[in-house]
Amino acid sequence: xxxxxxxxxxxxxxxxxxxxxxxxxxxxxxxxxxxxxxxxxxxxxxxxxxxxxxxxxxxxxxxxxxxxxxxxxxxxxxxxxxxxxxxxxxxxxxxxxxxxxxxxxxxxxxxxxxxxxxxxxxxxxxxxxxxxxxxxxxxxxxxxxxxxxxxxxxxxxxxxxxxxxxxxxxxxxxxxxxxxxxxxxxxxxxxxxxxxxxxxxxxxxxxxxxxxxxxxxxxxxxxxxxxxxxxxxxxxxxxxxxxxxxxxxxxxxxxxxxxxxxxxxxxxxxxxxxxxxxxxxxxxxxxxxxxxxxxxxxxxxxxxxxxxxxxxxxxxxxxxxxxxxxxxxxxxxxxxxxxxxxxxxxxxxxxxxxxxxxxxxxxxxxxxxxxxxxxxxxxxxxxxxxxxxxxxxxxxxxxxxxxxxxxxxxxxxxxxxxxxxxxxxxxxxxxxxxxxxxxxxxxxxxxxxxxxxxxxxxxxxxxxxxxxxxxxxxxxxxxxxxxxxxxxxxxxxxxxxxxxxxxxxxxxxxxxxxxxxxxxxxxxxxxxxxxxxxxxxxxxxxxxxxxxxxxxxxxxxxxxxxxxxxxxxxxxxxxxxxxxxxxxxxxxxxxxxxxxxxxxxxxxxxxxxxxxxxxxxxxxxxxxxxxxxxxxxxxxxxxxxxxxxxxxxxxxxxxxxxxxxxxxxxxxxxxxxxxxxxxxxxxxxxxxxxxxxxxxxxxxxx
Length: 702
Hints:
By secondary structure, this protein is α+β, with helices and mostly antiparallel strands. Among the domains are: 2-134, Immunoglobulins (Immunoglobulin-like, Sandwich); 594-701, Golgi alpha-mannosidase II (Immunoglobulin-like). Helices cover 20% and strands 20% of the residues. It has an eight-stranded parallel β-barrel with strand order 15-16-19-20-21-22-23-24. Strands 25-26-27-32-29-30 form a six-stranded antiparallel beta sheet, with helices on one face. Strands 1, 2, 3, 6 and 7 form a five-stranded antiparallel beta sheet that branches. A hairpin with a 2-residue loop joins β2 and β3. α9 (405-418) crosses α10 and α13 (502-521) packs parallel to α14. The radius of gyration is 27 Å and the shape is elongated.
């Protein structure tokens, strides 16, 4: 029997007295709590939640214990034209489920509407196969809930996929490959720390449901951007070891990362759900209270706003939906040990309604800013979607970081097109992005670290493919090669795809190193893509979202062999990261000024120089030239070992070597991106000038 219970907290909350259930469904007429056996296949009890307080249906089950499997049936009108899609024949997953059992397989039994007539309700019962929640034992609070651990100027992000990172890694025990536990293995974290990574940015780890189209083709949403359970770690990344759960294994992974002094960020998808558009399945919120949870079109409430391109958008303008998101974020920060979040298609979160559009003061941003836990986490926005006015780079609130795609495109264009003398970017564009894109970010007190600089990310070509392919090769995705970005900015460095030509391979290596050096030396927050340090290729697939196979799994065999290309590239990135740590100017969280502050060596002067050593002029900035130098720390007194050295970054993206006249001082060349010139023998003295080979960078210090 159910007692009245309480309308808070939402979800299923176990205690020594039983379990309290609370579900937000203000438009519902009745709610049934359905109890299943441990397999989740057989409905054993159906209990009516008699109490409803302010739109929250609630009840307390004194006999309930952790491990109990449950779902809801919600009664109400079926009237899509008014936004209501209640269907008690369909079992509904609690949006607050901490652990999810069952698998959505795409069959039409999951549809709330009649497959032959979407205007009618489908009467078939799907209880045996529906997704259900299992009541989980709460984890202890994290040691430092919501506290980002790395100083902003020291942060180096590394975007990875939990499964792809270790599925083929021979240094990980076979039963743990592709799992949370595998990612926590010492060999994996050792590798990342050797690279200089401070912050792991995991692609989505919240429970997902795969799209029916992919399921029909035998594929899955490998990337995971199709969430249906915002409190449940994705069980597909759980090892299944006895005595563990997906949540406990994730938390152990977080603890292992923190033990290394590193941060953990997760990619979260609160802009839409896996229920898709009006023809999609009824899995959870659509059947609980469709008109509450989703943005519906004002001209026809049977249809959904589709600013994410996935069929629907969650309505964070509704307080209960905003509460769902905030409760979810606090759960991951406080119980799961997450230090920050990367928000997929974040402009959707800033649209309280279709009429007002994106607003950096929207309820979601206000709620984050005042929250004592979440306001201290690392907050990263993907600042675009496909909605009206959907491109919002630089417009997120102070304290937020943003993926800077204009940095990506400018640096790709500068280095890769220059190598082929094609459609050159000018030097001003290069410098503006190198200096953290002040036009977009230098306002409202925002720091240069707000710009997340990247050359590659999960969405697009890998670094190896960027210098190897002219066009996408996405036929395996089943969309006739129409998906993903089309033409590559890069050209193919001499040959399309794999090549055995030593000259082609040497040029590709040279350009990868130049791009990586630009990334690690630029002002802002650098982000590396997992596998780029290994030369990972996806064979030209630049939208491998549905490829759960060796297209996306990182190939580790042979990458650590001494002298291998992967080993050399990884060692090169590690040297870049060490150089970044050594040079305060490169880690500055203040905008690079023209001159240093008299009493502040952490705010060095910076001069932009031509190769002849003279200052850049306005005409030079508008030139489509290929070479310039950046002089950091001029005017300061250099002292050996105190970090106050002057630094000179000499950039040559042209097809011929360039001689740079050095500023006064005793200069040492400490790194070159040119594979032939970079012997790794340590710094060497320079006398008056430095020869920088084609398509490369030289870094010198006093």
